[in-house]
Structure prediction request, 182 residues.
Amino acid sequence: MWKRWRGRRVLAKGRFFGKFEYTIDAKGRLAVPVAFRKKLGPDEDSFIFVPGRFQTIEVHPYNEWNDYEDRVLRHQPEHTEEAQRFSILLYSQAGEATLDVQGRILLPKHLREWAGIDNEVVITGAGRFFLIWEPERYRRFVAESMPRYQKDRDEATRQGWERMRDFGSGSGDDRSCAGSGE
Prediction:
């Protein structure tokens, strides 16, 4: 769903918050938390899976994935070795799934193996998408990252202000409307 914000057309979607502990069934299906399903639009039942940072499975609602491609991926260089390697791995390792009538998704086996996931998982909100973690890896991540939380937050805020300043001066590119047809 598109909305107007400060005269610009932007995607207005629910954000994924919180942490949930779930079990994968014998067929590799995982229930998507009800709180997350409530954030989806009425015709949003498809997801894209990709290898995520910190050896997670990153799960994007299909419409959000299209927006992510427009905002981020299309701005990456195409001819560097690193960018080509990243693009090849991202798309070759990606998977798709649709919610079944019980609100479950089938997790690709190769991504479960890559993430070290057996049958217990932690699902965490990450704003526009959510992450699926091997539980012990998630606990280590939190234990190691929380002491740096304030420093990381300050740095992210500083970088955000710089981008906004650059955008306001006309030196930045307008990624918020990328692909909107405007």
